[in-house]
């Protein structure tokens, strides 16, 4: 099984994700880089994993510049002057998880080839460690947050709004509220005490976890609320009426504002995007690194995915939830989010999943492709499962990245058509599983 997923390496602490593995990844990266910035989110395992990862880097002769407790986009900003960056985070995963995500100086995560290179060294255990007088040294970065704030402030304007910020008990506590205050906002914070047990709410910013944010926006009569995940590379929101602005709606809102010529989204993004923007839309695999790669390759104006990942290439190729919050506040300063939300179409969407035998995955996917190609559709994309485009809807069939299940998604312009598409996909998948 590959070591790297679509967003770095993750696993349960001291089970899949151990200090030994973190050290090994550090030694592999250290053989490729002379200087690396390292940071950690608020998880209880962070100091342990950071020490192990940094030890690996230094053993390979790489100088380490520790940024301490910072958000992922802050770490990526610190890596601009380095050869690489390493963020100790498991993002939106539960508190028992830890992980490592690797960054290039331009803010883009390690791509597939870079990840394979690191993975090959880790699996072979052929580390190029240095003698005692050539190991790397450790330095402390004291200005990483300030530099990130200054970069964001150069790209946003003034906004005098009341904003509620849910920091998810993560490192966003010392940057998002400050950025919005500098913009002129009055800020109310929730879960602004960093705590890796995530006592305020689970770190994934989905609607069911944001009841406190919604209630606070309503009770304080705020203009909007924003919420981060555990490392603040993601951002979602609620409007001035307390309505949740999901990933597809925010994606449409940002795309309409920033995508003038080219736009990159993932295969699971709503067709509302196509209806709202005039830009050329490129769809890619699910995962921020794939969005970043395509944004850079196509010179797109903006990229994003419904999970809450937003990439503004005029500043960085790193998903930056703090920058996204600032730019959403800018948008809301011109017109209420509740009014903008009403103009974004929301189409009937159905989701389903069926279990399958992972040992038969290759055989099942081959059968699925054959069956799905036989269906009359406008287009079939195969870069991440199978996405079928119809004139009045679309479907996505893909194996889960975390469970032995085949997931199905159908979206259409009316309920009946969405049900028809889902029924067709379900029958097809079940035939292929026999």
Walk me through this protein's architecture:
The protein has three domains: 9-142, Alpha-D-Glucose-1,6-Bisphosphate, subunit A, domain 3 (Alpha-D-Glucose-1,6-Bisphosphate, Chain A, domain 3, 3-Layer(aba) Sandwich), CATH 3.40.120; 146-342, Alpha-D-Glucose-1,6-Bisphosphate, subunit A, domain 3 (Alpha-D-Glucose-1,6-Bisphosphate, Chain A, domain 3), CATH 3.40.120; 349-433, TATA-Binding Protein (2-Layer Sandwich). The mean pLDDT is 94. The strands form four sheets. It has a six-stranded mixed beta sheet with strand order 1-5-4-2-3-6, with helices on both faces. Helix 1 (19-30) packs parallel to helix 2, helix 1 (19-30) packs across helix 4 (112-124) and helix 13 packs across helix 14. The radius of gyration is 22 Å and the shape is globular. The two termini are 25 Å apart. A hairpin with a 4-residue loop joins strand 17 (379-381) and strand 18 (386-390). The chain is an alpha/beta fold. The protein has helices at residues 19-30, 46-59, 72-78, 112-124, 144-153, 176-182, 211-220, 247-258, 272-276, 288-298, 321-334, 337-342, 361-373, 415-433, and strands at residues 9-12, 35-40, 63-69, 84-88, 97-103, 138-140, 162-166, 186-190, 224-228, 235-238, 244-245, 262-266, 280-284, 302-305, 309-311, 349-355, 379-381, 386-390, 393-399, 405-412. It has 14 helices and 20 strands. The longest helix is centred in the last third of the chain and has 19 residues, at 415-433.
């Amino acid at each position: 099984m590959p070591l790297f997923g679509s967003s770095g390496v993750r696993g349960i602490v001291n089970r899949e994700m151990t200090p030994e593995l973190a050290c090994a990844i550090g030694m592999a990266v250290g053989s490729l880089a002379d200087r690396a910035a390292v940071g950690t989110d608020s998880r209880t395992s962070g100091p342990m994993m950071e020490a192990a990862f940094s030890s690996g880097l230094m053993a390979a002769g790489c100088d380490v510049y520790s940024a301490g407790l910072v958000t992922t986009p802050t770490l990526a900003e610190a890596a601009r002057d380095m050869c690489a960056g390493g963020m100790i985070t498991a993002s939106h995963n539960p508190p028992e998880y830890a992980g490592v995500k690797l960054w290039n100086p331009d803010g883009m995560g390690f791509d597939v080839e870079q990840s394979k290179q690191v993975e090959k060294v880790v699996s072979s255990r052929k580390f190029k460690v240095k003698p005692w007088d050539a190991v790397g040294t450790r330095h402390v970065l004291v200005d990483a947050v300030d530099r990130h704030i200054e970069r964001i402030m150069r790209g946003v304007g003034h906004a005098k709004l009341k904003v509620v910020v849910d920091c998810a008990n993560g490192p966003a506590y010392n940057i998002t509220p400050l950025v919005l205050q500098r913009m002129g906002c009055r800020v109310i914070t929730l879960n602004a005490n960093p705590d890796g047990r995530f006592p305020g709410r689970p770190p994934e910013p989905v609607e069911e976890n944001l009841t406190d944010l919604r209630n606070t926006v309503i009770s304080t009569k705020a203009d909007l609320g924003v919420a981060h995940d555990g490392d603040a590379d993601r951002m979602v929101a609620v409007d001035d009426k307390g309505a949740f602005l999901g990933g597809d709606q925010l994606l449409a809102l940002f795309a309409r504002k920033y995508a003038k010529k080219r736009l990159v989204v993932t295969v699971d993004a709503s067709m509302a995007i196509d209806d709202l923007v005039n830009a050329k839309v490129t769809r890619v695999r699910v995962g921020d690194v794939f969005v970043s790669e395509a944004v850079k390759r196509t010179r797109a104006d903006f990229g994003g995915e419904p999970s809450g990942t937003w990439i503004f290439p005029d500043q960085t190729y790193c998903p930056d939830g703090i920058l996204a919050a600032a730019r959403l506040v800018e948008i809301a300063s011109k017109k209420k989010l509740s009014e903008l939300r009403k103009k974004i179409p929301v189409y009937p969407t159905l989701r389903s999943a069926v279990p399958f035998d992972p040992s038969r995955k290759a055989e099942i996917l081959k059968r699925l492709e054959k069956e799905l190609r036989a269906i009359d559709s406008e287009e079939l994309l195969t870069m991440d499962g199978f996405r079928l485009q119809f004139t009045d809807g679309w479907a996505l069939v893909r194996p889960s990245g975390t469970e032995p299940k085949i997931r199905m998604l159908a979206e259409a312009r009316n309920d009946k058509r969405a049900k028809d598409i889902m029924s067709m996909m379900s029958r097809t998948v079940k035939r292929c599983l026999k």
